[in-house]
Specification:
- The complex is a heterodimer.
- By secondary structure, chain A is an alpha/beta fold.
- Helices cover 29% and strands 17% of the residues of chain A.
- In chain A, the strands form three sheets. Chain A has a seven-stranded mixed sheet. Chain A has a three-stranded antiparallel sheet with strand order 7-6-10. Chain A has a two-stranded antiparallel sheet with strand order 11-12.
- In chain A, helix 1 crosses helix 2 (47-56).
- The longest helix of chain B has 25 residues, at 335-359.
- In chain B, helix 3 (43-53) crosses helix 4 (58-67) and helix 3 (43-53) crosses helix 5.
- A four-stranded antiparallel sheet of chain B has the order 1-2-3-4.
- Chain B is of the alpha+beta class.
- Classes of the chains: A alpha/beta, B alpha+beta.
- The interface between A and B is large, with 71 and 52 residues.
Chain lengths: 288, 360
């Protein structure tokens, strides 16, 4: 784009961010402060993810952007357009075709490969912030790997509700050392992070933190021996493609309690349907 | 109803932007506002946008205000997003506010002092009665003038300093921090704290400053001096070895003088809170000075009990661009998280019902 560098950020800024990324990769799960810039999109819209993407993007890259698992949500459209405009890179909605995937709140259902990078938008990088609001304190706790507070919180959940009540942004231990926020992905997606072949990068623009999980790193969702981690999903099959192993969105179809459960990952659902899979809703329509 | 996965995000965005542009222009029977009019006639709004947008450029601030339909925070955001792309070719020498061209200067601690009290263009003693003559369009008679004597107006603090009654300026040769390049870290030095306050939200600082006056971290403040005017900006290019003036900026400076009973190392003396803001912005400069002093509680051996004294709390929440982004991001889709919450609540309810039935 005229008047702007490739992928918007100037090269000095990109170099600063890449340095933070290298440090983050070297210390998996550790939050690295970085000189986050104001972006032309508001904080909370993915400025951290956008800065990370801008710093790793090359001219040959193919970019996919999803929000809530979908390529066509307004914010995903807006960010994809931003990079199409400022970097002129090719974009795609197909997970398998992308080299860089920026995401908000989901990990694609299609397994990622070791030649792909997934960039997470992170609203709140500090996994302990609900338990201890002071970042001076939480920094100390990370330094000492003092995560008792979080274990007590999980234990109290079990004592009170018989189960852990965290359903998204479920805390994980990375490489057996750092407690980390996986960003607000549903806990359903947590197991995908473990030993993922792709490089996982996390950008929090407003909080000015970057962190990373190198390929094939152990990522464990916190749990107890007698209360193992249970990912959450609606107990249904996708109404459109019949998938039973994909994360589902609940769509309200009428004012009489009608519900339809469909894949949150729109690309996954479309590919399954293209391959001939049909869900209950699809069969109903075919019969009509 | 047959469900179709929501499509058309692109078209929706384009249409929304077209509608926004139309709404921004408003009734085309009314003449369009020019940015020159905004810069000249809505100066206080322009000043606030420059201060919180952290960029001194009245013309761009006026454009931002026009583009944002007068939404000051949105306009400040536009300026911030613009300034972040600008190359840096140098750093200015510290502003010499003692030498600034003063258009207003008041002190609340001395009735008169060298340089005198200069009321200047202030709303302070206006009666807040709507002036319907303005509505009709009104050219004011020119204000009375008198020649300036050209003498420098020495800072009021210097008077107190002569007696050693007020703490001096902290002197350091260290490079000041740069908030826009290095993220906040704690303990945060006063340089970074003042930077954060200078670009902080006026409303937030006003409320925090006000809270210190109501007992939440009180500091017995007096307005030592408020001065408004134009200060020269000089840069010392390393290849030249001397400073050159590159222009003037309008600023408001507030020196707050606060009671201090002394500590083990310092005798009883007045301490200071400092405020410096782009443009004519007394409310902000004063609030800034109150909050600056409140944040020095720990340094001065006072008990830290109130929000305004909690450095981490103040600094992390003063920036309205960050705050508005994160508050407003709640309107972005959260289907996925909400869905997992739904399932968790359903599961927990089922468990609670099962437990209850088993008990019956």
């Amino acid at each position: 784009m005229k008047g702007y560098n490739f992928a918007y950020l100037d090269e000095q800024t990109k170099r600063m961010i890449r340095r933070a990324l290298l440090k983050a990769v070297a210390i998996p799960g550790h939050q690295v402060p970085f000189g986050s810039r104001e972006m032309p999109l508001p904080y909370g819209w993915g400025t951290g993810g956008i800065q990370v993407t801008a710093s790793v993007l090359g001219q040959q890259d193919v970019l996919k952007v999803i929000d809530q698992g979908a390529d066509d949500t307004t914010n995903a459209v807006s960010i994809r357009r931003f990079f199409a405009r400022t970097a002129g890179v090719r974009t795609t909605t197909h997970t398998a075709d992308a080299t860089v995937i920026q995401t908000r709140h989901r990990i694609p259902e299609t397994k990622l490969r070791d030649d792909q990078i997934i960039v997470y938008q992170v609203p709140q990088p500090e996994p302990l912030f609900r338990l201890e609001p002071s970042r001076v304190e939480t920094r100390r706790m990370h330094g000492l790997a003092d995560y008792g507070l979080m274990h007590v919180k999980l234990y109290e959940d079990i004592a009170r509700y018989g189960q852990i009540s965290i359903s998204y942004d479920y805390p994980v231990m990375v490489n057996g050392r750092y407690l980390m926020s996986p960003s607000p992905i549903p806990s359903f997606d947590n197991p995908k992070m473990d030993r993922m072949p792709a490089l996982q990068l996390f950008g929090a623009g407003r909080e000015k933190r970057i962190y990373a999980i190198p390929p094939w790193t152990e990522v464990r969702s916190l749990d107890f021996e007698d209360h193992p981690f249970r990912p959450i999903n609606a107990p249904h099959a996708c109404g459109l493609c019949g998938a039973t192993d994909a994360y589902l969105d609940e769509v309200v179809t009428d004012d009489r309690g009608g519900r339809l459960f469909v894949c949150s990952d729109t690309d996954h659902c479309a590919e399954r349907r293209a391959a001939g899979h049909v869900g209950a809703e699809g069969m109903k329509e075919a019969a009509e | 109803m047959a469900y179709v996965a929501v499509k058309g995000g692109e078209r929706a965005i384009d249409n929304a932007h077209a509608w926004l542009a139309e709404a921004r222009r408003g009734d085309t029977a009314v003449p369009e506002l020019t940015t020159a009019q905004i810069a000249a006639q809505l100066g206080r709004a322009v000043d606030r946008v420059m201060a919180e947008g952290s960029l001194y450029d009245p013309a761009l601030a006026a454009l931002a205000l026009k583009q944002a339909q007068g939404d000051v925070i949105e306009a400040a955001f536009l300026l911030r997003a613009y300034r972040t792309t600008l190359p840096r070719f140098g750093y200015a020498a510290p502003l010499d506010t003692a030498a600034m061209l003063v258009r207003r200067r008041v002190s609340a601690i001395y009735k008169d002092m060298p340089g005198g009290q200069i009321l200047g263009p202030t709303y302070d003693y206006t009666h807040r009665l709507l002036d319907f003559a303005l509505e009709a369009g009104f050219s004011p008679p020119s204000a009375p003038e008198m020649p300036a004597d050209g003498a420098e107006i020495p800072p009021v603090n210097a008077i107190l300093a002569q007696e050693g009654l007020v703490e001096g300026d902290a002197t350091t040769d260290a490079e000041p921090g740069d908030l826009t390049r290095t993220p906040l870290a704690f303990p945060a030095g006063r340089d970074v704290r003042l930077q954060t306050l200078a670009r902080g939200d006026e409303g937030f600082l006003l409320a925090l400053g006000y809270s210190t006056q109501r007992g939440w971290g009180g500091s017995h403040p007096f307005v030592g001096e408020i001065r408004v005017g134009e200060a020269a900006v000089a840069i010392p290019p390393p290849e030249l070895g001397f400073e050159i003036d590159i222009g003037d900026v309008a600023v408001t400076e507030c020196q707050m003088v606060n009671q201090f009973k002394g500590s083990k190392t310092a005798p009883p003396q007045f301490t200071r809170g400092y405020g410096l803001v782009f443009g004519h912005a007394e409310r902000k400069a004063m609030a800034m000075a109150l909050v600056d002093r409140a944040m020095r509680a720990e340094e001065l051996g006072e008990e830290v009990t109130a929000p305004a004294q909690n450095i981490e709390f103040v600094l992390y929440h003063a920036d309205n661009i960050e705050a508005t982004g994160f508050v407003e991001h709640l309107k972005l889709p959260h289907y996925v998280d909400f869905q997992s919450e739904l399932e968790t609540v359903r599961r927990m309810r089922a468990e609670a019902v099962a437990v209850k039935e088993a008990a019956e």
